[in-house]
Structures are given as structure tokens and as C-alpha cells.
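re: ur question from the group chat, yeah i did fold both. here u go
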Amino acid sequence: MQPGPLNLLTDIDGLSVGHATDLTLGSGVTVIVFDEPATASGTVLGGAPGGRETGLLDPALTLVREVNAFVLSGGSAFGLDAAGGVQAGLRAAGQGFAVGSVKVPIVPQAILMDLLNGGNKDWGLHSPYRDMGYDAFRAAAKGAFALGTIGAGTGATTATVKGGLGSASAVSSTGHRVACLVAVNAMGAPTIGEIGHFWAAPFEEGGEFGGLGLPSGFFPEETRLRLKGRNITATSIGIVVTDAVLTKAEAHRLSIMAHDGLARAVLPAHLPADGDTIFAAATGKKPLSGLEDFMELCHLATLTMARAVARGVYEATALPYAGAQASWRDRFG
């Protein structure tokens, strides 16, 4: 496996990524915008999800197969306003699903719970997320972007260290690209026990999250249940994208395989208090030659998501107020 040139979601041609970050609020929004509508689906495996327009991603529903953008946001249910800001920007740009003479931008969204991380959530009558969604849309660009405490990963936490926004990419043996982006806000732990090693260590490429590898052995203390505690501030949300030509059903399968990567990077994942949601999209620039090609993409979706999770945690910094959760670098760097 070889990462793409940036080792980011933007290694996939035909999409842009934008962020809006508010460190005082302790929250943010990340937007993925496609140049052209992309075939898309998704899967929810957490027990407490929050989302918008996720139903139309069901592969059994065939009227709408493509999306214009995806939104990942903090703010719990308040954060669902963010998609409205992105939709407004797309509508102004003349993009959307044609309904007669009207175009309706298709913008599925997933949210994570970051309301109890210590940030100032006293925003008044209306939440700030619609404006943050629009700001993230306006900021969307190709090329390199920052990871860690930014965008949807701003207020993210985990059972052991500060969560954050991570991304990674890979190139298949036939030249197809797969890339993931994830906001890691898990009930469980991305690190092994109370040491700095990552559960995703077997999949690391080029020391992208510290190069520590796995510990010399595993003991019951390392694998015992670690949770955030009574504060239900969970949900990891993300996206996997490929440049391959996929059907909606194949995109759905790709999202399931990316969930496998989440489960290899966080212990435990998909808990009743998690809302783990992963979207999948295909830009359709490079046809597959057969089932074997698609199975390799599925394999890479798993590995790349695991790497993206660890990178998001590795790059995160603590929020700038008293009592904020320590980052990986604070504890182990």
C-alpha cells in the first residue's frame, strides 16, 4: 500500500475540503464538496446517530444516487443546521438535483456530540452552525489541509486523549485511489491502555502517527474497557472516497469496509452511546476491471480509515481552556 501524494482526502481529484473552527465554542464544521455529483451511500453502526438526508443513501432507494457535498459537524442536533449553510452556497452556485425548474442541492450530514467539552455553548436564540456551514463551504479548497483540532474535529474527545480530524489515502495496485477523512470523537480508546501506542499501528505508513508500532506484549490491563465515563460525548463520523466507478450498492459496501477500519483503530467502537456514521462516495473517473479490483478497494478502505483515525488523534491539540482533555502529544509526545 502506498499513500497518495498528500496522504489526504484531497488526493482524490474532483473534490474540495473546507473547515470552520471556533475554539471558544469548542466546535466546528468540515465540508466535502464535489466538483460534479458523486455516487454515494453510507452506513450507520453506532447506537446513537444524528444525521440529515442519510435515508436517501440507502442503496435500495434509487431516485437519488448522487450527492453534491457531505457535512461533518460538531454541535449534536444543533449542528444539523450546518448543512443548510452548505446547501445555500451550492444553490447560489446553481448546483443540485433538478426538480422541474428548481435545483435542490443534496447534502447529507452527520453530527457528533461535543456539547460537554468545556466550550462556551451559550450562543443565544439560534445556533451558529448554519453560518459555520456556509463559512466552511466558502473555505473549501483543493490541496493540503490541516488535521487535528480543526473543523468537525475541534471539540472531539476520546476515552484516553483528545480526539480530532484525521485523513489518509492509498493507491491500489491498479492505480485507483482511496482516501478517508474522519472526526474521531469516540466513547472508546484509540490508544492501547495508558501507553502511547495506537491500535492502528499495524497499518501505519511512514511514521504518519509517531511510528511507535505495537507494544511488545498485551496484558488484560491494555485491553480492558475504557470509556469516557458518564458524559455521553461520543460519535466518530467520516467519509471514504474513491476515484473508481462504483454503483450505489458498491459505495454502500465501501462504507461498511471503512467501518471495519474504525473498529481496528478504536477499542471499543460502535457502542450504544456512539453514533458512528461513515459516508462513501465515488467520483467515477476510473473504471474497475472486475471484482478483484473492487475487493482491493474494500481492503484499502479498512486500512486507510484506521490510519486516518490515528492521524486525527496524533495531530490534535488540547482546547485552550482549563480542564480540557490532554492531547496525545501532551501525554506521550
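okk and heres the other one u asked abt
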Amino acid sequence: MRVALVQLTSGDEVTSNVAVVCAYVREAAARGATFVSTPETTHLMEMNRGKVLEKASFEGDDEGLEAFRALAAELDIWLHIGSLIIKVAADKLANRSFILSPDGDIAARYDKAHLFDVELGGGESYRESALYQPGDTLSVVDIDGVPAGLSVCYDLRFPYVYRDLAQAGAKVLLVPSAFTQPTGASHWHVLLRARAIETGCFVLAAAQTGLHDTGRKTYGHSLVVDPWGTVIADAGEAVGFTIVDLDLAMVDKVRQKIPSLQHDRAVSAKP
């Protein structure tokens, strides 16, 4: 399975972001990628509450989703749009992933379940729950015969999500993200490697990078981690895309060596 991870510095205008993404996806497909993954908030990086509500669209009206569906069909590829900011009410949004099939259909959706409400210090804080509606359902989708589990960014810090996805059959875990600079430098690589090791899955994490129009800085380093926990691709900090060939037989080989998914037990902590 030849996959491509697109790394972006998305701006605050949907139309221009869509054009950039489409260009990278076309180039990746021309180099043989049959599955392409993009980061969280692919077509809009906007932190201002009023502006993001103004710029976001309902799913049926979203120009980016329409363009990406047409592109998947044109290129005959599977396209994972890491997430789009989708309006679900006049004053509420969802951070929604999409899996688009080679005929342009929406094969799966996933709304980010864990919302980033943190105070990082130095004036950097986030309160996603003030604006976003969390999802409550995990999703495993068959991508050309390969079961893949969906997640978004902050979900990465909750290991049970990935355990559940693996127990539901996932062999690939998708973690599109827009990690901050400080948390990325400290935690990004180790968390992604841990999720791979714990589940015996490949982990594909397309990321936002650099300084965005709104002043936010993201960490970059889109990663592919194999089921043994080895980083087999690291995109660094530059925009563009990274192509990797996955040997999916490795999933079964690793799980035979370390069959931890067969050893789960229901245990609880006692006060």
C-alpha cells in the first residue's frame, strides 16, 4: 500500500487552502500513492470565534469537501481529509474527518471526540469545547481491504481510543493533527510510537506545520510509525508530502510476537 502524508501550513481562507491541498494530492497520486492523508483543519486555520463561524459551512455546502470528493474520483484514489471545520448549528462546529473513496463517495466520517481545553502557559491557551461539539462514536473503515481507525489530534493522548480501534479490527491508525510547538517537541514522537507499539498497528499522522496566518505555530513532523514502533518516515518542518510503502503483513507478524491484544482483561482500580 503506497501512502502519502500531506503536510500543510493552512491559512485562514478556505479557497486558497483547497487549491494548495489539491496540488499536493495530485502530485502524490502521480507518484503512485493510492491513499493520501491530510492534517487536522485541512482547509481552514482560524482561531477567532466570530470569523470561524462566518467562514465555516454546513457539510452539504462546504466547497472544500465538494472539491476533495471530485478530486478523489478524478484520481481514483482513497483520500483521507484529516479534518474540516464543519458547521453543525448556527453557533456550533464539528472537527470532522472524512474518508473519501475512489468514486468520490464519503466512506466514513469521524468527529473529534476529545476537545483541547488547556492552559499551556506563556499566554497560550485553547478552549475547543466553547465552540466545538465532540463526537461520541469511533470509526473503523475498510480502505481498499485495509481496516483503518480514525482519530484526530488530541485523541492521541487517550490510549483506550486506539485499543478499541485495534480490537475492532484496525491495522492502520490515522492521527491527523495540528500539534502545538511546545507539546509537539515534548510528546509527539513518543505518543505516536506508543500507540503503534500498544496496538501493533501502522500509525499515519499527517500534521500542520509552521507559523499560520492567525499567529498559531504548529509542530509539523508528519510521521509514519510501523507496528514495532519504529519511525519509518518523518517529514520534518517543511510543507509538502511524504510517500511511504507499507508492508501490511508486518501487522500480523508483530502481533504474533507480542499478542497483547489477545490478553486484555477487565480490571479496575480500587480506592
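fwiw on the second one: Residues 1 and 247 are 7 Å apart (CA to CA). The chain has a mean pLDDT of 95. idk if thats what u expected
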